[in-house]
Every structure is written in C-alpha cells, then in structure tokens.
Structure prediction request, 383 residues.
Amino acid sequence: MIPDTIDILTRLVAFPTLSRQSNLALLDYVEGLLGPAGIRLQRYASDDGTRANLWASVGPDIAGGVVLSGHCDVVPVEGQEWSSDPFRLRAEGGRLYGRGTADMKGFLAVAIRAMLQAAGRTLHRPVHLAISYDEEIGCLGVRGMLDMRRGHPARPALCLIGEPTGMRIAIGHKGKRALRACCTGREGHSALAPNALNALHLGAEFVTRLQARQEELEASGARDDAYDIPYSTLHVGTMRGGTALNIVPGRCDLEFELRAVAADDPDAIIAGIVADAEDIAARHRGRFPEARIDVEDVSGYPGLDIPADTPEIALLQSMLGDNEPPIKVAFGTEAGLFHEALDIPTLICGPGHMAQGHRPDEFVGEDQLARCEAFLEALIADA
Prediction:
C-alpha cells in the first residue's frame, strides 16, 4: 500500500537535515520506500561521505521523460520562536507546520508518492526523482550528481524543480555570486591613529563604492520587469573588524553578494568592483605599502531564463489548469545548474510559497499539496 503524502511528509520533517549535516538517514528512509517497488536507485556521495544525493528512476531505461527535483536540506531553527517542535509535523486549520514543509519537503513527499504510483504503471517514458543536499548554502551538493549525470545516455527531456511557487510555472530567477572582501591596513595605538591605516575605514570606503555601483545598476543596468526588483542588486551582509577600541584595526572582512538579471554580465560587474577596491587601496600605498582590498569569489549559481514560448510550458500549464503567464521568482534554485548540465528545459513549480519558508512556524497548505498531487499524477499519466 502506498503511503499518503502527509504520512511521508511527517517522516521527512522528522529528519533534522540541516545544511552541512548528514542526510543519510533520510535517504535510507526514501530508498526503503522506493527500492522494494522496483525503482532504480543511485547515490552520489559527498567527498567526506556524510551526505549524498539520490537519483531514482522508474520506467524504461531510455532517454526522455521528466526529472522531479528537490533538495532535502533545511535552514536552522536557532533563534526562532516556534509554537511547536519544528521537527514534528503539526496539522492545524488546513496547514501543515514544520521546518522544511514549504522549502521543500512538501514537494518531495508528493514526488516520492508519485514515483511509487508510477512504479505500478506501464510507462513509455521514464520518470526520475533527484534529491540533493546543501542547496541552502549555495546549491553546493547537487553539482557532484550533475557532473556524473552530464552526458548520460538516459538524459531526461524536462526537469521540474519543486521549489514553492504556489503551483505556478516559473521560468526564471536571478543568478547569485557570493563574494568576500578582505581589507588590509596597519594596526596602531588609537592615540596615534593618523600613523596607522584603519582597515574598517577602508571597508567603509568599499561599501560606499558598492552603493554607488548599486545606484548605477538601478539607473542604467539591464532590467527585467518580471521581477519585483527588476534590476541586478548588490548587498553587503556582514562586516567584521577590530579587537579593542584603543587599537586601530589592521583587518576588516566583508561578505557581499550580487544577484544579476540574465541580461547583465556578472563577471563584468565584479571586475568593476575589483577595480574600485584597487583604487581605494592604491591611494594609501604611498604611506602604507601593505594597503590592500582583496576580493574573493566564494560561491554562486547561475540564473535561469527559459523562453516563455517553450512548448513544455503550455503542456504543464494545461495540466495545472493555469491560463496566466508564467512567472519569475526572486529566490535562487538549482534550476540553472540542471539547465546547464543536462541541456534540457528546466522549470520551477511546487506547493506553498517561499514567504512561508525560512521562518518560525513554517507551513504548507494542504490544498497546495493536493494541487501538486493532481499535477504530478497528470504528468506521470503522460509519461
């Protein structure tokens, strides 16, 4: 007997699969459901063996078909005030509360059930399920699996990323680059501050230049009005430096990010930022030869920009009964990585809304899960 979606979701939520922590117990549970149904399973482990991706396939071992994709890691709950245990599913008023219910174990529960249903049918095309790890910290985990699947003869024809979109078809999101700037000055006694070079002051100058770059992007950069914020954005998230009030700090570190619309070249934007950093430091080297601002590209993922007239969109919208134009989402996903690695149309559609994720009392609506169930049933019936 196939377990229902809520039963599966109850089990998935109970695994505290925070990013960078093991997800192997969750994968053991999923494989314990899928394996006995004859579904083919392949794990792709992390370098240290503590985490893994899972690729599951049902139907003929040929090219074509669809891959349903979702990550199983979740963001932390520390510092958040929950009304109940975040790792114990709670149903109330048509909502299912728990960490990851919206982002994105709700979709995974529906997809696992759909795979079990597909295993009992005669399929003309395969259906795949991809479960990844460490998505929440820069889409890191899925890359190893995609490297191994790149060029595989049984390449799917379509990828569906089940991030929460309110069950709307999304065709795009901005790309992201996470960066770090290390500002090096010269330490000294604060009573003799002019004889030292304050690294925090270098960092402040750098932030001012980033603000100017942001204003340029807003005024004259590329625009895509499908987004709430239609231009590329720069954002400083952290700034650290100094050890005591009476010591001029010699080092200051900043973390900042770029989220770029498809028509902007992120490498060109970053090159301008690097030039700004060198200009700031160079003005001080006459007195302080060690003055530097080093910009490091830490991580990132590509954006997604699927043409609105892609034939698969109309097919999926007919299954959803959705006559509205496809949307673009503000948050990042693994979709751009799937699109680049497998060279297939990749779309985003899943139950719930991102505004309900990453927050205390995260939830997904039972009605959203029901819509997703009906959608995947129609998708598999077409396989």
